[in-house]
Design brief:
Blueprint (H helix, E strand, L loop, with lengths): L6 H8 L3 H9 L11 E9 L7 E9 L2 E6 L9 E4 L4 E4 L1 E6 L37 H7 L3 E6 L6 E9 L5 H4 E10 L16 H6 L2 H34 L10 H10 L5 E5 L2 H14 L3 E5 L7 H7 L3 E3 L19 H8 L3 E3 L11 H10 L4 H6 L3 H6 L17 E4 L10 E6 L2 E2 L5 H9 L4
Parallel strand pairs: 1-4, 1-5, 6-7, 9-10, 10-11, 11-12, 12-13
Antiparallel strand pairs: 1-2, 2-3, 5-14, 7-8, 8-9, 14-15, 15-16
Length: about 450
């Protein structure tokens, strides 16, 4: 009779191997960054983005910030010197259109997806509390030179609040740059049609008549207006109570208090919109409610470029690599949209538009835009300085200037070229190892027979 192993005994036998098994299943491989110190990248080509290139110069990093930059910048005593001969120093790229850290395996693993909440109005939902710092997407994204991202929730009319993160750190507070960076709103769409190759809108028709859809849409818009006005009144009541304690003490409301920075125009509101009519309506709604709008998606933004320029509304463009959405669109309609926005004078940034797994393709997306009419200088700004300026952190991120956060990438070629390799990476002045899940798998299986 064969010997039977008890369950506890079997588990005990597996215990030494569980950490490796669990690590392989989760796919997380994000080596922690080193400590802040004083570093000098010497003799490298420097691309500050905000000014002319420096053919051969030095960038000094100290205390997490850029301490000096220039052809004649002195190397401080005791600094760790990096030989930059043949290398180029760029500011780290900024993907302002992703949900990285909120979604790990969307297909087939619901427990790894924390992108959306139940219900249509969730202003108090913060991406900050849902981000997984150990996401495998973090490591493979940062090694291409993307040092910081805007991770945003989705779903419903008010999806929640996006957070601006550095892609290095063991905890979200350690990674966080702006915990509550923007509110995400998707207005209910109007009309029918407009989907890919004639689809999309007819899904609404199956649910009822156009009149029914319009009534439901109107109810949602009215609810949104009422919530925003209530948030303004809520804060006014609290301001009055702070000045005069004799007044009745206002109640606390986590939903309304979450909206206060946005109705007071202290932070921007991201409106998800692709079609030209939806973009116009989002801008009109923002004007009505006195919000600071940013269009996210913007597939047809080039069609209303003059309008966006007039209203000074920026776009976080996420459709550059998408297929054409209409049968009669030219094949390059999305590739060329950044150059058309630039020609119209619209402030914009190029984003990956991906939940996380493909965010690493951001530099090649910008490179594609450069191949279809956008200047190389503008393509680089569209993934570095411009998104930082649009989101109000241009004084801290996006270019190589003294005093800014030292998010730097040192490469052996053009940052937007697929053949280029990252040689050194700094996030918040901390050297980041260039290992990732991809390099780990490559090393593990490259010699497999």
């Amino acid at each position: 009779m064969p010997r039977r192993t008890t369950v506890p005994a079997a588990l005990a036998a597996l215990l030494p191997f569980l950490p490796a098994v669990v690590g392989a299943q989760l796919g997380s491989y994000n080596p922690p960054p080193g400590a802040q110190g004083t570093f000098a990248i010497r003799g490298a080509r420097i691309v500050p983005v905000s000014g002319p290139d420096i053919a051969s110069g030095t960038v000094v990093v100290s205390g997490g910030r850029i301490a000096a930059v220039g052809a004649d910048a002195a190397v401080p005593a005791g600094a760790t010197v990096i030989d930059g001969a043949g290398l180029t120093v760029y500011p780290g790229m900024f993907d302002a259109g992703t949900s990285i850290g909120l979604s790990e395996i969307p297909q087939g693993a619901p427990s790894t997806v924390d992108v959306s909440e139940t219900g249509n109005f969730n202003p108090n939902a913060q991406a900050f509390f849902g981000v997984n710092p150990q996401s495998a997407h973090v490591g493979v994204t940062r090694v291409v030179g993307i040092t910081h991202v805007l991770s945003r929730p989705s779903g419903g009319v008010i999806s929640g609040q996006a957070t601006l993160l550095n892609l290095a750190g063991s905890t979200v507070p350690e990674m966080s740059v702006v915990p509550r960076a923007a509110l995400v709103v998707e207005l209910p769409r109007s009309g029918f049609g407009g989907g890919r190759f004639g689809g999309g809108g007819f899904a609404f028709a199956a649910a009822g008549s156009q009149q029914d859809v319009q009534r439901a849409r109107t109810r949602q818009l009215d609810s949104l207006r009422a919530m925003l006005r209530d948030a303004d009144a809520y804060q006014k009541a609290h301001d009055a109570y702070a000045k005069d304690k004799a007044l009745p003490r206002p109640r606390q409301d986590v939903v309304l208090s979450a909206l206060v920075p946005y109705v007071r125009r202290q932070a921007p509101v991201l409106f998800i919109a692709d079609r030209a009519p939806d973009i116009r309506e989002a801008v009109a709604f923002a004007e009505e409610m006195q919000l600071r709008p940013i269009i996210v998606g913007g597939r047809d933004a080039w069609q209303v470029g003059a309008f966006l320029k007039q209203k000074d509304v920026p776009v976080l463009l996420s459709a550059v690599m998408d297929l054409p959405s209409r049968e009669d669109d030219p094949y390059d309609v999305n590739f060329a949209s950044p150059s058309k926005l630039a020609a119209a004078g619209v402030r914009f940034a190029i984003t990956s538009g991906d939940q996380g797994a493909e965010a690493r393709n951001l530099p090649y997306t910008a490179g594609m835009a450069s191949a279809f009419g956008l200047s190389k200088a503008d393509a680089l700004k569209a993934v570095t300085l411009w998104p930082a300026q649009i989101l109000g952190v241009g004084d801290r991120l996006g270019s190589i200037e003294v005093g800014k956060v030292a998010n730097l990438v040192v490469t052996d070629g053009d940052l937007l070229e697929a053949r280029t390799r990252t040689r050194h990476l700094f996030i918040a002045g901390r050297p980041v190892p260039l290992d990732s899940k991809h390099t780990d798998l490559n090393d593990r299986f490259k010699d497999r027979p």
